[in-house]
Amino acid sequence: MDLWVAILLLIHVGGAIVGFGSVYTFAILGPMAGQRPGAGGVALLEGMAALERRLLRPFLFIQPISGAFLIFATGLNNGFFSHYWLWIAILLYAAAFGMGVFVQIPLVEALPKMAAALRGPPTPEFLAAVKRTQVVGPILTVLLSIIIILMVTKPGA
Predict the structure, then answer these.
(1) pLDDT(1) > 90
(2) Percentage of the chain lying above the pLDDT 70 cut
């Protein structure tokens, strides 16, 4: 393996660990926030938003760029569609990217502000936003898990 491929692989795998590893914490932190009304819950939601901003967001863009360079550096662009594990993972990533950028990230950003503004029981808008994250979050986690499995096992390669 030449140095260029090793560096790209390090960036790509490291990005998956750092950027997308944080997504797995949301399944733990979200319910914890719901069990702690008031400042404690708001702090957990703010922590989730900070993880999303500082770790996840940068890697949403680093991953496809480093992946594209890896495809060409390793020659996987030759007979690209015969590497079904790769193009299926790319399609799943595109779906997860769209769902994350247009649905989940805005919700994760809005929830701490909504929770901090609560005076009394949760509003219907807050509960609807929480419910939406409870639906979209697990879908994103499953998609990322499938992508990781495909990238590691490379079935049919």
Answers:
(1) no
(2) 100
Spell out where 3-157 has E strands.
none
- Angle at the Cα of 51 from the Cα atoms of 46 and 52, rounded to 5 degrees: 95
Q: What is the pLDDT of residues 7-23, one digit of tens each?
A: 999 999 999 998 888 88
Instruction: Determine the Cα–Cα distance for residues 155 and 86; give it in Å rounded to an integer.
Output: 9
Rounded-to-integer distance, Cα 53 and Cα 109, Å: 9
**Extended beta strands in the chain, E state:** none
Is the distance from CB of 30 to CB of 134 less than 8 angstroms? yes
Domain segments of the chain as ranges: 3-153
What's the pTM value of the predicted model, to 2 decimals?
Answer: 0.90
Sign for the CA dihedral angle at 100, 104, 108, 113 comes to positive
The answer to whether 143 and 95 have CB atoms below 8 angstroms apart is: yes
